[in-house]
Amino acid sequence: MAGDFMLNIDGVAIRVRRLGTGSPVLVLHGWGASIEAMQMIVEEVARGGHEAVAIDFPGHGKSAPPPQAWQVSDFKQCVLRVMDELHIACADVVAHSFGCRVTIKLASENADRVSRLVMTGAAGLPPRRTRGQKARMRVASLGKGVKGVLGDGALSRWLESRWVHHVASADYRAASGVMRSTLVHIVGEDLTEHLERIKAPTILIWGSEDHDAPLSSGETMSRLIPGAELVVLQGGGHFAYAEQFSRFRLHMNRFLRGGA
Amino acid sequence: MPHQNVAVVFGGRSVEHEVSIISASQVMDALEVAGYKVLPVYIAKDGAWYAGRPLRELSTFRDPTLRLEDHSGVYRVALSPDRTARLLVLHPYAKRGFFKRDPELWADVFFPCLHGSFGEDGTLQGVFEMADVPYVGCGVLAASLGMDKIQSKSVCRSAGIRVLDCVWASRGQWQRDPLEFLKRVEASFPYPVIVKPCSLGSSIGVKRCLDSAGLRDAVDTALVLDERVLIEPALTNFREVNCSVIGPPYEASTCEMPHYKGELLSFESKYSSGGKSGKLAGRKMSAVGTKSGLSGAGMASLNRTIPAPISEAQTAEAKRLAVAAFEAIGGEGIARIDFLLDDRDGRLYFNEINTMPGSLAYYLWEASGVGFDQLVSRLVEGALRRSEARHSTQFAMDVNLLHPARR
User: What are the tens digits of pLDDT across the range B55-110?
Assistant: First the structure.
């Protein structure tokens, strides 16, 4: 089966894209993105003699939003259910940013379902915040206190809208409704403990100039994940995989091939 | 993982200068993924040689006001054919800092990524041979034969490979008696005919002509670009089939069928899809200055179908002929062999052989299950093997015939 189709996973409609034939490779996008952002990886994986299986995470792309605010483990469960539906016992994973949080969870808790992991610009470690960011966070939590006092009235909502504009991250501002609280859950979850439990061979491909998931996170991850290999794409940002795709794909192909 | 230093030589005094920069950038990526250390060696259009780390990045070549020696870490280098010097030495005029260490110019293997003149044609290979350094790809004779469309056809013909008939003339012959040549062409085959410069790549100067006036113009143009020109009958109903070969031991890749608009694949349509910005006269072809963040796709970006939509028997035949052609010229390393498939009778004609195909035809090898990094590793290993084998041939005698004791 190739092409796009919708899967109903416990009441949430999930868009799945399959391309190519061969051993399955899950392709997981970052926060606020969708399958389209990973299309070049999907095509490359398929050209390399695999079956690419990409999904839009709930609340992203053409998938329905989650029924309530989700945690990383809910997203992981969702991926597992998709694999079950498609009769995929075990798959390689190529993931970017937020997709890596799900991958880390999956690989550490369901080791038998994954074989090789390619992670780029991976999120999952607690961010090292600058002084300005810390101050903004304090203001943001002050806002929450004010909201607690005022209740959920019009004044409170207006204040929040002003407040958000000044202190919240771009991701938070772009998210709405249930996805906002989901984002808060996700960003707050530190996955450091999970890293050393990953048994799958892992390659981390990182842009040297990644400001969203700094290279220092990549270095920490490569230390904590047993046997992980770190490849730095010089000059690349958070989307280094797209900016330097010709380099990224060579590393990905070599790694998925299983060679040294 | 290998630890060898590989000097990748690119640029060059050739109309395919920019194409070479892209191919080399891709090859250097693949070499690094395969675990080699890369020393970029760039030949400017004026023929000056440079080496150094900044030449690794495509962005270094995007600046029109480029003065390479101003980049820290770029050095002018010169060639020494003295075999104790390992080819690359610092240029006598190179800027050297009093406190700066001279650059590391050691290379275990040379990997020429040059297309066309002074690189793909045996000239550079001759320098490698003199300096006795291992190098990737064809030797002197195979490279020269591959570059020469007239000679490669005749070598293939004597190896039993079907080629289109051709008539050729040198610039001197043409200037002495153009009418005699036109008569000779017209006596050999009917119009339309194809005019090709003998040794240019990328379809430069190739023209389809319908009558003697058109033929005259096309030959005139071709002989500005090249010293010899060849004329072939134009097939009316044909498709192109390309196949890559590596070795020895020889192995053929999956076949491709390139697609193009218009009658012939022109230089512009080859390297700047759409051809909107592909001005040859411009400083740079659009292939180098592509707006996409992806680092210039070169030959790899051409429209094509892989595997070629031809029958299994035809595919097997194309692969067999590709290996036979590569073997006939005495090829080593890699080549892409281009065939014309006559759709009227299904016959394959050898068209040309490229001993340094654009993007190293990696897309054909990836489709054959050989990763780009594996491909470059095989080529480097092949170069080292050949060099070792060469050293078991004795070229000089240790006996000094001038020594008095010998008399």
Answer: 998 888 887 777 888 888 889 999 898 888 888 988 888 877 766 777 788 899 99
Q: Taking the CB of residue B180, how many other CB atoms lie within 10 A of it?
A: 12
Q: Do B366 and A253 touch (CB under 8 A)?
A: yes
B295 contacts chain A (CB < 8 A): yes
CA distance A254 to chain B (A): 7
A18 bridge partner residues: A3, A53
The angle formed by the CA atoms of residues B93, B98 and B100, to the nearest 5 degrees, is 95
Cα(A7)–Cα(A55) distance, rounded to whole angstroms?
A: 10
- The full set of domains in chain A, from first to last, is 3-126+190-257 (3.40.50.1820), 131-177 (no CATH)
* Contact call for residues A51 and A20 (beta carbons, < 8 A): yes
Q: Under the phi-then-psi rule, with left for phi > 0, alpha for psi from -120 to 50, and beta for the rest, what region is B361?
A: left
Sole residue written with tokens 């794409």: A233
Q: Which of A242, A246, A254 sits opposite B371 (nearest CB)?
A: A254
**Domain B5-136: which topology?**
Rossmann fold (3.40.50)
pLDDT in tens, B217-267: 999 999 998 999 999 999 988 999 999 999 999 999 999 999 865 445 555
Size of interface A-B (CB pairs under 8 A): 38
pLDDT of residue B287: 34
Flag whether the pTM goes above 0.80.
Answer: yes
- Classify B167-233 by CATH class: alpha beta
Report the SS3 class of residue B90: strand
- The Cβ of residue B169 has, within 10 Å, a number of other Cβ atoms equal to 24
Decide if B294 and A246 are in contact by the 8 Å CB cutoff: yes
Contact B373/A243, CB-based, under 8 Å?
no
Strand order in the sheet with B5-11: B87-90, B75-80, B49-51, B37-43, B5-11, B109-112
3-state helix, strand, coil in chain B (%, to 5): 35, 20, 45
Computed from CA positions of residues A44, A45, A50, A51, in that sequence, does the dihedral angle turn out positive or negative? negative
Banded model confidence at residue A144, pLDDT cuts 50, 70, 90: low
For the domain made up of B146-160+237-388, the CATH class stated in words is alpha beta
B30 lies within 8 A of chain A by CB: yes
